[in-house]
Amino acid sequence: VLQVIKYESVIHEFDPYFNYRVTQFLSKNGIYDFWNWFDDRTWYPLGRVIGGTVYPGLTLTAGTIWKVVNSLNIPLSVETVCVFTAPIFSAFASWAAYLLTKEVKGPGAGLTAAALLAMVPSYISRSVAGSYDNEAVAIFALVFTFYLYIKTLNTGSLFYATLNALAYFYMVCSWGGYTFIINLIPMHVLLCIVTGRYSSRLYIAYAPLVVLGTLLASLVPVVGFNAVLTSEHFASFLVFIIIHVVALAYYIKGILSPKMFKVAVTLVVSAGLAVCCAVIAILIAVVASSPTKGWSGRSLTLLDPTYASKYIPIIASVSEHQPPTWPSYFMDINVLAFLVPAGIIACFMPLTDSSSFVILYIVTSVYFSGVMVRLMLVLAPAACILSGIALSEAFNVLTRSIKFQLPGIAGNPSIASEENGSSTVVAPNDIPKTEEAAKEKPAKKNRKKEKENVEKKPTPSKTEKRLLVLPLEASVIAVLLLVLLGAFYVVHCVWAAAEAYSAPSIVLTSHSNDGGLHVFDDFREAYSWLSHNTDVDDKVASWWDYGYQTTAMANRTVLVDNNTWNNTHIATVGTAMSSPEKQAWEIFHSLDVKYVLVVFGGVVGYPSDDINKFLWMVRIGGGVFPHIKEPDYLRDGQYRIDAQATPTMLNCLMYKLSYFRFVETDGKGFDRVRRTEIGKKHFKLTHFEEVFTTHHWMVRIYKLKPQRNRIRGKTKKSKSSRSVSSKRDVRGKRNPWH
């Protein structure tokens, strides 16, 4: 909510603008039109079928909330509901974390984990007001699905198993990260089977999830038959077969004699191996027919972190898909990084089915977060759960130590007397009620013997308790240090929420040396200009990062956007940006483009501009069009825009559109992002004309000049000119203006 207080009620980032636009369409036209919506404003001239290519969970959730509050005569706009959906579900996620941790280690650990998750910066980055992205509701669905799985595992209730399948269905509707669930739970089931922890509760927790969950997942249009055809789901089916073989073995063991059981096991194992081999052979045959072996590009990137950089540059170009640095862990989870190992140790004392699941959760999430910085979001709940367990166990030991050593504490006279070196005496009230009931009317001759036994029985338990008692001074200091550690965590989380993650990327701010605040609202200024000064049917070309915002805020047709489903179309735009001005004009003209939008940060020092992204345009374009080669834009392997830059770089369209008239800003052409003077300062545009540049030069819009007219029969050419033109025709050069 700090974002709304500091700025205004505005949508963040890029993807949320598409979600907001879809939610507007849903609230205005209804669910049936939403499923059948063909959007002709995106991916021109191809278009996009929205209902079959979007995860509808977030949109349907916000649309339902909007309809409910308006039916209660609470006049909230769709934008307001979209802005506050993420904070609402962050509270639900904390509640789900409490329930999950409570099932593992009790309510104390659950409350601690919920408090940690409510403040962890990694989750705040996706749950601040305005962060209207799929992860806003998906993290709640993820943690709640895990809770229901553990609840079913602990109780063996078919009711909770059904709820688990429904929660998994909501997760499938919300985010493509549902594959993490359908692979983590089978891994845990297989771990329990291998370690001899199979039980009927495990079967009830897993089998309905696979059957009902897969059937429900196939109902989501964007998933469909991928729920049974892609490799991401095969692990669940393989474990489903294994658990039925194990269940059959346990059933046969209960009705047969040991000798007959050995014979039956031999038959079952033989038949099971034959079936498994047949199924695996079929799966291999199906998978081998796919060039990616049935895995999506993002899944292959998780398994092989170098895959995207080698084969799919469009995935590698996304900043969220880059590996995180070590400082990002301390920024996003802070002190939890040090508490997680202690939580893992606590889960082994004792090791249960639920605690082993939490250990497996943290291990896998740490690996995946190390591959993609985006998946730090999956690590955050696991780190909070383990840290909550660690803190709860530590406080239990420390507070118990203080309690048993402070004099005058009621109910502890035995401890006080033992500290003073006197004999141990146990009050009658300390005897368990079951023993009192059994000894209400003992025989007189046995009373003396029983009295001696009663006095001796508590001694071992007191010895065990004393082993867990730490010195009083050390316990007090440790409690104070833990409280201080929590205080530092709270301060860091508040700072991260207020400064690092509350600033919307569409509205930027900076502070001057005298403390003044400067607001850079260039993005909305540019989109407003497009909306008011261009025709409704005009096509706008830009890099795919700005497609969603252009469509949602300017209501103009774009060539590519953040969905990135068509690599060839994106490569075409990248090739145009990498080509000389004349060739770029031909490419854009063939696509009916009228305006070209570029983002430039050289004046104000905005680092996420198109010049810094340009090499990715070259790589993606070169992946489809071989004449675009990255070395042509590098000088001795270095990316330069100064006087040492290559001629190919200095003459490409992106360079010219970014640095046109740039020398007029300071007379030298000094780029504040690259910290150097540009190489080519004075040049003119022949095929494009500048129509708008925002106040801080962050967004620049150019218009394609019209095609030159050829007037036949109006002018007479000399014989020499005719002979020259005929020679050029013989050489095979054509007029590009035809």
From TrEMBL:
Top-rank EC class of the record's enzyme: transferase
Give the InterPro entries listed for this entry: Oligo_trans_STT3, STT3-PglB_core, STT3_N
Pathway field of the UniProt record reads:
Protein modification; protein glycosylation
Compositional bias (Basic residues) at which positions? 709-720
Q: Where is the composition biased (Polar residues)?
A: 415-426
Region Disordered, annotated ranges: 415-460, 709-738
Q: Where in the cell is it found?
A: Endoplasmic reticulum membrane
Keyword Transmembrane on this protein? Answer: yes
One short Pfam name that applies is STT3
The subunit structure is: Component of the oligosaccharyltransferase (OST) complex.
Name this polypeptide is given: dolichyl-diphosphooligosaccharide--protein glycotransferase
Which organism does this record belong to? Linum tenue
